[in-house]
Amino acid sequence: MKIIIFTQNLDFGGVQKSVYLLANYLKKEYDLTIILAEDNKKIRYKIDGINILQIKTPLINIKDPNVGEKLYKYRIIELDNLLNKVKPNILISYEDYNNLITLNCEYKCKKIISCRVSIKDSYEKRRIHLLESEFYYNMIKKLYKKADRIITVSESIKNELIDDFQLDNIITIYNGIVHNNDVVSSKYSNFILNIGRLHTQKGQKDLIKAFNEIKDKVDVNLIIVGDGNMKEELLSLVNRFNLGERVLLVGYDDPYKYIKNCKLFVFPSYYEGFSNTILEVMSCEKNIVSYNYKGSKEILYEDNIVPLGNIKKLSEKILYYLNNERENIDCSKKLFEKSQNFTLEKTLQNYKKEIEALCVE
């Protein structure tokens, strides 16, 4: 049986890592191909023994008011052409933009779409892939009912699709991780940690402001692992608060070596699907302070959560755990125990189960 996975790219990111893990699992039993929606990003997750095809990214006129729809339609045609060449039995797509392209293709096969973010939170007053939020709302309502299976990464996303778009045929498959106990420590010690793309969504500005509120009350530093288009803005904020010696932006690096040494992990994200990073931190037996993004309570406890966007509460919770070592350790242990429920093997087996079910429908 031939399976195609269609995703945006295999650069850094949670979706990219999920595709990499699923592809490595499925290639053992199926004839697997990956198609990428763009060819202008690095392939950082290299997968041996799998054919990777890329849709050529065309030159575009960013000033053209219709450029987003033109690029979207171009990718539909290009994906359809590739599907007719490879002739898969099943097509699995990741993320809403690629899901819509998939469901617009004329090629007939079983189609599984993976929904990984809250539509309300992610698209409100934002342009994604040069398309307005209204485009996504309208097209999701029109096309998602054509999917043979909709897989969400959290119950909150599933409930949103049911309540707001009257969709069914939806199941939740949580992300899973491999529990990594063989970790080399970083050269740093005595710090609080954040890991993530440097983006408004991830709330690093709030974290720096919260840290500034408590900087004179703690002796720890703040390390942020990741890169992105907000790097210069974050560095400017660090300089404005005279935190150059206390806040380090270290770029992309192996997250585990930082997790192992951190005192506390802080996750001030405004919206998520289901965070692999949080699972990785939990599996290393570290405590977490997080914003109350939609779906946070499916993985964290109330003691880990503060109101969304409340910098004062964020700083107070960080300070509380830094000053109460016993509580910090106890919460770390509770989170570690909970992380044992989210194994990669369970996630991959659930995907295989859905693939096999579609084969007999």
Automatic annotation (TrEMBL):
In terms of superkingdom, the source organism counts as Bacteria
Question: What is the protein's species of origin?
Answer: Halarcobacter ebronensis
| Molecular function GO terms recorded | glycosyltransferase activity
- Alphabetic keyword roster: Transferase
> Where does the Glycosyltransferase subfamily 4-like N-terminal domain lie?
12-177
Instruction: Please list the residue ranges annotated as the Glycosyl transferase family domain.
Output: 187-333
Query: This chain belongs to which protein, by name?
Result: Glycosyl transferase
Q: Name one Pfam family in it.
A: Glycos_transf_1
Q: Which PANTHER family match?
A: GLYCOSYLTRANSFERASE (PTHR12526:SF630)
